[in-house]
Amino acid sequence: MKSIRRSGYKLVQAIALCSLGMPVMAQMTTNLTGPSKAMSLGNAVTADTPGVFAIQYNPAGLSKVKGRQFQFNLLNAYMDIDADFIAPPGYEIFGIDGLAIDPVTGQQKDWAANNHSHTNTVAVYLPGYGLQKLPRGPGVLPTMGFSINAPGSKFTFGNAFYMPMFAGFYRDEGDPGKYMPKATAMQRVTYLSPTVGYEINDEWSVGAGVQFSHQAIAADQWMRAPNMLLGVAEILQDAFNCESGNEPLAPFIALCGGNVGPWDDVGAMSLDLQETISPTYSLGVLWEPNDWFSWGASYYSEADMNLKGTFELNYTDDWSGFWQSLNGSIIGAISAAILSLPSGAPREAGNVSSKLTYPQHFKSGISLKVHPKLTINADVGYYDWSTFDGLHLQFDRNLEFLGAAKILSPENATSNTLTLPFNWTDEWNIGIGFEHHVTSRLDLRFGAEIRDSITPDDQRSLLGVFGDSILWGAGLGYQWDKDSVVDFHISYLQSIEYIPANGSCNLNCDNLTNIIYNPYAGLDVKTSLRFASLGFSFRTKF
Hints:
The structure is a single chain. The chain has seven helices and 24 strands. By secondary structure, the protein is mainly beta. The strands form two sheets. It has a 22-stranded antiparallel sheet that branches. It has a two-stranded antiparallel ribbon with strand order 2-3. Helix 1 (about 1-30) packs across helix 4. The longest helix has 28 residues, at about 1-30. The chain is elongated, with a radius of gyration of 27 Å. About 50% of the residues are buried. Mean pLDDT is about 90; it is low at about 1-20.
């Protein structure tokens, strides 16, 4: 019964970690969807803000935007995610060869082993419609804003619609990466951001703003639990000759109600969470003592959120049948009553909420005109990810899949709540950008942003596939006429991670005491994530 309790807890972790990994995506996607000037300069624009979109980077920079101006940005984003699941020599779970042919299906027992996962299909979250798959190819993301500065006034008012965080993808049904997950989207859309910049004097400016955002998390995921304990279950079923359809020890114990094993699917889960109003505030300062040097700093507050939505669990016939048969036996019924084991319900659904924190962040930077033809920008940014202590799920009813969890981990689970702690680290980003003033109307730009990973090596997963990486950018700015400016950019980021078997207990650990979801237990995993974007910005007076 100990093995049954632990395998039940594996299911709990599978469900919870489908949500756990998505906040990791938040760090992945910060500052990847900005205006063209920022993207081409490695996001080093705190002291040299991108027009109206000073609202997003340093509200004090809004004071430099004179008159009435409108800015439109269009970004084509492409994300390519690959993973290889490599079976090392001697790959097995509790003595069961994962590369052997299953006599029932005629297929390799672990179909994911020595297989390749690939997706470049973007998914988005649409309020009222949920998770949506877009056509293959780049995703088009528009943002826009405006500012108003009355003649002779030291105040500039502005508002912008933008996406400080965006990520989403969709895998095919036959993709071996569907266990982490098949489809997901995590995005933060700031739909209202009233901001004011004030020019104190010729050298100093300050700014402040309030942002109202929509936060969404959604996922569809298949679940499996390849570990020793389900290996024991498969060996027992083989010993009982369950293929014959007989129960040799019935009615004392029945284990042949459904085929379960280390690499068999447990079921599919869907999760849909959102918060429609998530407020934050921002503060900024800009110092320009002369025409060749400027310094800027900005602070954006954290947002404590209570996302609400729905969940649905649909178990496979084999998984439900196994528990129904077991609970119908004498030993199974007694164990189920004592340990609150699953009853074998084919479906569970209801409402769920989750408390998450969007981290506060601070940036400081300089802009230095080292030559009439060359300006260098440099920024350093800090994100307070370590304050996000964990994922807290509150269900609207008692759920049978939490029965075993509260026995094994009472500090993290009750009959209707589940908490998963994190060990994330704070993130420091360093950006540098070069701007070559070719003529009075044309600027060429190049930049890079060094981005730290917040995930410890032993907690990496297919969702948190960004390790330490560099975002490269290049572009140009052109003064179209006296009232209009056009910017273009191209950017690229790649992160490659190699996670040997038992290297991360959020992915591929196979030890007996492991209680974290590991759908690729015992496999070496190599991941590659490539992000590229091509976009333009247009700003004009109106």
